[in-house]
Every structure is written in C-alpha cells, then in structure tokens.
Known about the structure:
The protein is α+β, with helices and mostly antiparallel strands. The protein has one domain. Helices cover 36% and strands 34% of the residues. Strand 5 (94-100) and strand 6 (107-112) form a beta hairpin. Helix 1 (15-36) packs antiparallel against helix 2 (43-68). The two termini are 29 Å apart. The mean pLDDT is 93.
Amino acid sequence: MNTKQVYYPELISRKGELIAWSSFLMASITWLILSLYGAPIHTGLRFLTYFLLGSSLMISFGNWMDRKTNLEIDDEGISFQNGLRKVRIEWNDIQQIDVYSSRWGNKVRVSGTEHRFDFRTLGEVNLRGKEKGRMGFEKGEEILKIIIERTGLKRIGKAGSNEIYKHP
C-alpha cells in the first residue's frame, strides 16, 4: 500500500510585491517625464529606479517559488520541489537532519547521500503583538517528526539552540 501526503507552505501576501512594482512604475514615470522635458536625470533617481526594479523582480521571483513549492512524503521517501529544483531522497539515503532555530519557524535541512533540501516549519510574523503573516509549512513539525521516525535518526547533539540528527 503506497500512501502519499503532499504538503504546501503558507503563502505570503502579495501586497509587498504590488507596492514594489508600483514604486518602480512611479520612479520610471518620473524618469520618463524628466526625459521628455529635457531635464537632467539625477543619479539618485537612476539608482532608485534600478534598485526598485531589482527588488520587484526578486520579490516576484520569491513569490513564484513559494507558489511552486511542495513536499511529498510516501512509503519510499520524500520529495521536495520549488519550481527551480526537484529533489527525491529515499528514506534509507537520508544521512542527517539539522534543525536551526529561528524567530520565524525552524529551518530544517535534510541531507541525503547525494542531495539535500531545506524547508521551514511554521513561523508567524508579529508586529506590535499582532500577527502580520505566516511563513513556512503549517505542518512543518509534523513533517520533521515523520522524517525522523521513518529514517531512524537520533538526536546526537545540540549546538546552541540547533539540533543535529544522525544514525546512532
């Protein structure tokens, strides 16, 4: 019997992406208007426009990757994909798990004999005591527990607030 579970990360609001592209558009329009009137274009405006373009592209790329990310767990192993790469690791090939504590969900690194991938457990972004967003996998702790159980890895140590799991 082959059971497969698919997990998806929480998706971040696209509001920041909209703000970034709107800011780039305003800077570009300002540059265009100044150019049409033959006015000199200040170096600061050039820098700001290029900076906003780069920021907008990176935010859009990050959002695209988040929307393409998933983890699949089945009887034979675990698969991770994020739009750029697809990694499949069989249970017996997983050599180590590193769990790095962080403010916005723990970062988990799963290392196999040939491949590795990272994912985040659920993290909540709070501002002045109010939740502003969530990131990572809502069931990230459950995913970590399943991986540890299926591989038989044991916690061999702690480095500060980080944990390391390996074969005994």
